UniProtKB/TrEMBL annotation:
It is an enzyme of class 3 (hydrolase). This is NUDIX hydrolase. It comes from Planococcus dechangensis. PROSITE patterns: NUDIX. Keywords: Hydrolase, Magnesium, Manganese, Metal-binding.
Length: 204
């Protein structure tokens, strides 16, 4: 291949996450609501009828559809559908960092305000109930942190003879920190807690 053709291919490229086309992509909204005692964060309890993660606490959000203009539009659409509210009730939506999960998933996160006078009509197929927690609680309380270790187990036919070190190759083990916030009888953990902790770092 001629140098000119190579340069034409790479010139002006916008870098992306390598292999991202194979990732499942989601977008969520961290909803803020101003109340008499200050700003609160709204959470959903997932319907107990759902196949995946029934009864867990999360933010509104879901898979990015091809028809969505961008990730922000996905977060807004999902919030509207799950909480039964109009788009006009949501304002000042800005991006947070996105998460690239080791399990082949990218989650785009946004924070935005919901009009405090909004009445919610949660979609019962997806949402069991909604509740709010004062923002100050998360500013005052660090999450509990627990570590998960992942074992590396190549399949039986793995070609050890093709790599330096063979069967004694020094694999780099994967470790993931899981965060837990406990508010009254509510346990907030997983990606929701990770996004929440990131948001606290941003606003502190």
């Amino acid at each position: 291949m001629e140098p000119e053709k190579i340069l034409k291919k790479v010139k002006g490229r916008v870098p992306e996450v390598l292999g991202n086309r194979d990732f499942s992509k989601y977008a969520i909204l961290l909803p803020l609501i101003e109340k008499e005692d200050g700003v609160h964060i709204l959470f959903e309890v997932r319907s107990f009828e759902m196949r995946r993660q029934p009864g867990e606490i999360c933010f509104p959000g879901g898979r990015i559809d091809r028809g969505d203009e961008d990730e922000k539009e996905t977060a807004l659409r999902e919030t509207m559908e799950e909480l039964g509210i109009e788009k006009t009730a949501i304002s000042n939506v800005f991006p947070l960092d996105y998460i690239v999960s080791p399990f082949g998933m990218i989650v785009y996160s946004f924070a935005g305000f919901i009009d405090p006078h909004t009445e919610f009509t949660p979609n019962p197929q997806e949402v069991d109930t909604v509740f709010t927690v004062p923002l100050q609680f998360f500013l005052d309380n660090e999450p509990r942190v627990y570590r998960i270790d992942f074992d590396i187990q190549p399949e039986e036919s793995f070609p050890y003879d093709l790599i330096a070190g063979g069967e004694n190759y020094s694999w780099r083990a994967r470790q993931v920190d899981e965060f837990f916030y406990i508010y009254e009888d509510r346990v907030i953990w997983g990606l929701t807690a990770k996004i929440l902790m990131h948001f606290m770092e941003v606003i502190r």
